[in-house]
Amino acid sequence: MRSGMKNEELTKNSVRSNSNSADFYFSVGVKISRSKLKKFIPFLSGVSSDEAITTPRFEPLSIRGVEFATMPKRPTLKPQTTILPKIEDPYNPKLLPNHKPFKEKPQQKKAPSKKNFAMKKETIVVIDKVSPRQVSPPKNKIITKVSYKEAARLPEWAMIAKPELEKIWRNLICCSNGVKPVIQGNCSFKYYVGKGNNSALIKRLMGARAWWTSTENINEANFAWTQWKDKNYIQTLPNGKTIEHSIDTYYTPQINYQVPVRINNIYRQVDLNDLGLFKIKGSPSYTAANCCEFFSLVSKVYNKLEFNQHLANKKGLFMSLKTYHDACGKNIFDCHPITYHITNGEDDPEFIKFIEAYNKQEKSKKKKKSRNVWIIKPGENSNRGHGIQVCKNLNDIKAAIKENIDIRTNQPRTYILQKYIEKPFLVQNRKFDIRCYALITCINGLMQAYFYTDGYIRTSCVEYNINDTNNNFIHLTNDAVQKHSDDYGKYEDNNKMSYKDFQRYLDYEITDKSINFYTSILPKIKAIVKDTIHAVYPKIDVNRKLNCMEIFGYDFMLDSKLKPWIIEVNTNPCLELSSSYLSYLIPTMLDNAFRIVLDTIFPSPVFNRNHDPIPENRFDLIFHQLIDGAKVMESLSQTVNEEIELSDTEETFSDKENP
Fold it and tell me: 211 by DSSP, 3-state: which?
């Protein structure tokens, strides 16, 4: 019998009715023979020795200082408590006559184990009845850490932990937004989903939230999702730019949940790192704002931001980045290809500058062993590769910018002339780009931005050849273009790779260098995304509409030295589940975004909570208005008014897209 075993187990295993066992044990590990026990038990309990050994009815007993494994209870007698005189040894021959005294072994220098337990002198021994529930857990149960995913597999722990962890998550985000949700009456919210761009997926994700119901009337919805920005609807949302915000200097949300989980009879502390809470709380941009009441039942959230063209069309992105980099003393062409914005054809002053750069490149191309290749893109109303051309001579470029009117919108058209990245990094001799996501929210008039740490690679179908500029299957990696190729899906699952797949390719192909995509490349991409948020902060959603969010799709390319270059930002990134990996990535990303924006200010009622594991958050907080906004406004103070006026002028045509 082991020391430290629970009283119930000792009762069951140590003493049994009609047992032939010759030995019995104290719970502290001291063995006593059957004959000694027959002499010892009557003295302590007042029961005859034969009756004590054969009585099938037992209750756990303990001795202060020394515990018995079990003691029999006489059915007709009440439990008694006997106080013994002070003794030096429970085997004192005065107490146990006709027996030799117990000779204690000399103590060794090493720490005594539980089996070599020695009682202290002058111990008062008291016998009293103890309930099994009052017995403390054994001391040999070690508390170690275990991941949340492993702990969540036990429904008993998950049932207790999930509501508390969800409360921590809501408090973390709501404090950052400066709101305190107030729910009155029936907790039921309505959502509206317009047609297009896999609207069925949005409906499925919202339908999984049992406290939401669908509606066909966008005006009565608490959450509205449309493929293209509905300018009439966004004008109905109240402005929040007059709301005053300040940092709460007295309160900071804490991520602390100390309820251990019992696995294999061992108590383990739960590590919350795999929930992704510290991607928000651990960000340098995180802060708690002074909160005001947020009445959820009468509040609305829209999935588009006002004046998003400053980020989401090619002209707006280039102009915003150029203004920001110039104000900060940086060179925009360190992260963005050399670009010229042409508004008036060949007579435009920017086109004259382009001609100078083109002639300079033409003279040095033999020395640099490069080509003088440029890519022409529409300055606005361009999505999924529409209107993009690759040109390798000046005549083709002049022909491409000849049209001044957009045929689809009948509005003036401008062009982006951009230096083509002639030496891109290739995957199996084919060109590719990187698609990643960012989320911008404006809740209660406070703007924040998040970077999603997962994404995917889009590859082309045809091997790279700089001499063939007419084959779009070589140069344009957009899925809307590549899916029409006969080789679509020949090399990868619908021409898609995960970040992990790309890392395996780097490990296999670049053996002379140890390149880690997650530590060497992705942080640079994240830094560029953060710069774009800084660049558009004074111009996007200047009225702080209550309340808005938007998911943007960023496209990057890597040159032969694995340096990332930003290509464009999309307001309507494709949400089609065109590969097995995207079937996992896109729903997970959208659900993460909804957990940040919707589940925190439109919380689930208690009775609708299930015990499914809490999804891991993969959004990194990269911008907060109260932390980063003041620095940006200070650096761009001389250009803000000019850019805001420009946004009002562009709004008349830059966002008019056909569904």
Answer: coil
Instruction: State which of 240, 268, 298 marks the end of a domain.
Output: 298
Domain boundary residue among 115, 134, 153?
Answer: 134
CA count, 13 A, side-chain hemisphere, 140: 8
Domain that holds residue 128: 7-134
End-to-end CA distance of the chain: 77
Q: Say how far apart CA 578 and CA 557 lie, in whole Å.
A: 21
Cα gap 261→546, rounded to integer Å: 42
Kindly report whether the peptide bond that precedes residue 444 is cis, defined as omega within 30 degrees of 0: no
Instruction: Please write the tens of the pLDDT for every residue from 587-625.
Output: 999 999 999 999 999 998 765 566 788 999 999 999 999
- Name which of 564, 544, 563, 562 is nearest 554 in CA terms: 564
In this structure, the answer to whether residues 130 and 152 fall within a common structural domain is no
Q: Which residue has the tokens 């209870």?
A: 73
Provide the 8-state DSSP code for 274. G
**Considering the chain, what is the average pLDDT of its residues?**
80
| List of E strands, 15-68 | 23-25, 31-33, 58-59, 61-63
In this structure, the answer to whether residues 173 and 260 fall within a common structural domain is yes
Greatest distance between any 2 Cα atoms in the chain = 123
Number of Cα atoms under 13 Å in the Cβ half of residue 47: 23
Q: Are residues 178 and 272 in the same domain?
A: yes
Q: What is the pTM of this model?
A: 0.77
Same-domain pairing of 123 and 154: no
Tokens of 116: 């070599």
Statement: residue 83 has pLDDT above 70: no
Token output for 154: 């036990």
pLDDT digits (tens, 9 = 90+) for 120-149: 333 333 333 333 333 344 444 556 789 998
Co-location of 39 and 125 in the same domain: yes
pLDDT recorded at residue 382:
64
Residue indicated by tokens 């669908």: 214
Identify the band that residue 517 occupies on the pLDDT scale cut at 50, 70 and 90: very high
- Cα-to-chain-centroid distance, residue 638: 37
- Whether the pLDDT of residue 582 is over 90: the answer is yes
Tokens of 310: 């400053």
- Tell me if 26 sits within 8 A of 1, measured CB to CB: no
pLDDT (tens digit, 9 = 90+) per residue, 26-45? 434 444 555 554 544 444 44
Q: Do 282 and 348 fall into the same domain?
A: no
